[in-house]
Structures are given as C-alpha cells and as structure tokens.
Amino acid sequence: MSDLTRLNCPECAGEFPPPPVGRRDFFRAVGLGAAAVGVAPLIPATVRAAVPAAATPAAAPAIKPAEAMIRELFAQLSSDQKKEHVLPWNHTQKDSKGVPTRLGMYNRPIGKPISQAYTKKQQDLLDQIFRAICSDQDGYKRLSRNGTFDASRSFGGIGATIFGDPTDGQKFSLVFAGHHLTVRCDGNSEPGAAFGGPMYYGHSPNGYTDKNVFFYQTKRVKEVFDALSGQQRTAALAKGDPGGGAGSVRFRKAGEKYPGLLVKDLSSDQKQLIEKVMRDLLSPFRKEDADEVMTLVKTNGGMDAIHLAFYTEGESETTDNQPWTYWRLEGPGFVWNFRVLPHVHTFVNIAEKA
After folding, report:
1. Quick check: 53 pLDDT over 50?
2. pTM of the entire predicted model
3. What is the pLDDT of residues 114-161, one digit of tens each?
C-alpha cells in the first residue's frame, strides 16, 4: 500500500501494478461469480459536472458499434501485427497466478503504444473505438483526462491489445491500457462480467480539486457524507484502509462482513443521493455497458445490498474539506474502490453472483 503522507505512488512508477488476484478470487464460485472491474450504477447518467476546459480533439460521432469496428480493425492487421498485438484468449503472463492477461489492470500499455504498433488509418479506427465505448463527448473527456490520457500525453501513448478472435461467434476482448487507465470492449464475451473484466481509472491531480476530471464523483459522494447523521458517520467510517490495486476489489467470501453503512438502512432522501452517485459513476460509459451493469446489480440484490464506507488512512492528509482518503461501495458481486488522496486511483469489480 502506498504511503499517502509521502505522496508515494508505486503504481505510477511506469511499471505494471502487482499481478491481478487469482482467477478463482475474481470468478468466485461461492456466491460471487465472474469478475469485472466495471461500474455500478443502476440508472443511466443524466447529471454531469462541468469538465475543466482543455483542448481536446473534436468528437467524431460513432457510426458503428465498437464491436463492429474491432472486427474491421482485425481485418486490417498484417500477419506481423497479429503476431505481436493479438494474443490468445487465455494468454497469461509470468507470475500472473494463472489470471488471463486480458483481465489484468494496468498502468501502461501491455505491449507497444498505439503510435508505434498501428498505422495511421488503424490509429484513427482505434480512436473511434475508444470514443464508441464512451457515453458521449463528456464521457470521452473524463476517460481521456481531457484528451491528455494523463501521463501518456496522447491517445497514441496508450496501448491497445486484442485477445482472442474478433470474427463472428468467437470470444474476443480489446484492452486499452495506459497511465491510470484500463478499459475494455469484449462484445459480452466474458460471461456475467460487466465491461469484460476488471477496470481501472484515475487522474494525477488531488481528487478533491476541480482539476481532477473525476472530482464530480467525489463531490457527489461528499453530499451523501454530509447528509449522514453523527451516528451514521461513525458507522460509515472504516478502520485501516482498503488497499489499492487488484487486491482491493477481491470479492468477500460468503458470510464475511462488509464495512460501512448498508444502503437499505438509509432514509429515502439519503438513498436518492446514493442513486445520484451511481448515475455519476456510470456517466462516462456507453448505454450498453450501463444496462449490463444495471442488470447485474439487480440480479445481485439491488442497491439495498450495497454498503458505503469511508477510510481515513494517512490522517495527516485529511481536513474538514478533505475528510477521507478512500470511499468505497461494496456488496455481493460489487466493489467500487475510489482513492481520493493524494490523487485518484479507482479499481472496480462487478460480476454476476453465482
């Protein structure tokens, strides 16, 4: 775990984060099913905070579904490109503990960056695919960190790797990975998993400032915190810290207690605030993925089964205006682990309960 008081961030050192948790932890057969670090809201987003102004490329409207464009990209690849940038569906890396590479959460490209791996025409098509998995231009601004892709500095600085075979009827997953970013498009090839597997997003500025493109999410969560009674806040504050990386989104075993407040026990007004949080969390992503998440949440017991917890690890960094270092939504088949300080690291896992 990083030492927040020293602003140490091992994940940002340019290396891959620790190996993903074991496949059995993600695809748990004891009631927590397949893994996904996706998102959790159950109503499509309509409320979005303004994104800080920055120069971003003009949005190119997606005229095809992302999956169709992935098949088009695959057909354009040379045999040498396929050897280097298309990996088997169940490809694993050394020390991955058997977890397929496609399910990892990464902080840099898996292979070569897009600018080095693909032709200009293919890069343009990949850009369209990335935009197609975003909800709209606002969603693109969020996931691209205002077109900078954070320390990657440009879309060409992140990676795009295909797993499997994107031809009709075959399993496939296209994984975009870069600094503070792992997102996918898999055409629902991963059974019972939102977004095709574990997802990771973040941004370098302090998560409590409007310079961070995900500030609106923490701002919305703080509205919930401010609406809690003193007794509820005490119950919501969890000891220690939830950790970062893949381990932080490991599903709990059946019967294991969840920290924090159960949504079911909140007042109707407080539940409405939680609903707004969920809308904002899902807002960057396309409707198809939002709908899948909504279905999984409902299948796993609905929002009433989710807990909200706040962590104050690194207390010397917290203030009245920055009251916690993590906030976390967690329940059956559901984890949304959001680190606010010193900057945003978010790991999410949503899956069908077995």
Report:
1. no
2. 0.84
3. 999 999 999 999 999 999 999 999 999 999 999 999 999 999 999 999
Q: What is the dihedral of CA 142, 340, 208, 294, to 10 degrees?
A: 50
Q: Looking at residue 314, what is its pLDDT?
A: 62
Do 37 and 158 fall within a single domain?
yes
Alpha-carbon distance 37 to 11, whole Å?
17
CB 289 within 8 A of CB 302: no
> Of 171, 187, 203, which marks where a domain is finished?
203
Contacts of residue 58, Cβ cutoff 8 Å, sequence gap at least 6: none
Average confidence score pLDDT of the chain: 83
Specify which residues 177 forms β-bridges with. 159, 182
For residue 83, count CB atoms less than 10 angstroms from its CB and return exposed for 0-12, middle for 13-18, buried for 19 or more: exposed
175, 321: one domain: no
The answer to whether residues 74 and 185 belong to one domain is yes
Last residue of a domain, one of 154, 170, 203: 203
Q: Is the pLDDT of residue 290 over 90?
A: no
- Exposed (0-12), middle (13-18) or buried (19+): which is 30, by Cβ within 10 Å? exposed
